[in-house]
Design a protein that fits this description.
With about 180 residues, the chain is of the alpha/beta class. It is about 45% helix and about 25% strand. Strand 1, helix 1 and strand 2 form a beta-alpha-beta unit. The longest helix has about 30 residues. The two termini are about 35 Å apart.
Length: about 180
Amino acid sequence: MLKCYLGSLNKVKLAATREVMKDYEVIGLSVGSGVGNQPLSDEETIKGAYNRARMLPGDGLRIGLEAGVQTHGDKLFLVNWGVLIDEEGEAYYAGGTRIPLPEFIKDGLAGGEKELSEIMNAYLRTSDINQKEGAVGHFTASMVTRKDIFTHIVKLLYGQYTKRRSENERLDYSRQRL
């Protein structure tokens, strides 16, 4: 069976990846993102996803998924990014839905000492929200969950990879005929 490594042991990220990568053995591994525990920009979130994918074994597809926040004007938005690196080292990028976050979250993150999940856990008096519906689930009345967002990102990544592979096979066939 083909292998697909995921740079996380988070059960939501694993479930999302397994939902899309049905023909692959999905193997979650704990790897560092190389960025802060709470990425505070698209750039940092993308870098974290890329680093997670890059740190995985190269004998299969490698996927890194990262959640972060990004300020646009005076609003803070939840952001999610993913990177897939194929066996040849080609990287594919995809981002997810953005939703504005309430002011109390922006204030809570301002000191740089807390993560979004910590603020949400305290606010909701729960634990492990990042292993459940996530902040997006809470703020969308569970109409969209964290798993939905990461499933969408993995679909976008795998779709790009499949398209590129199909185009390369067509080129190889054309060259053989010449």
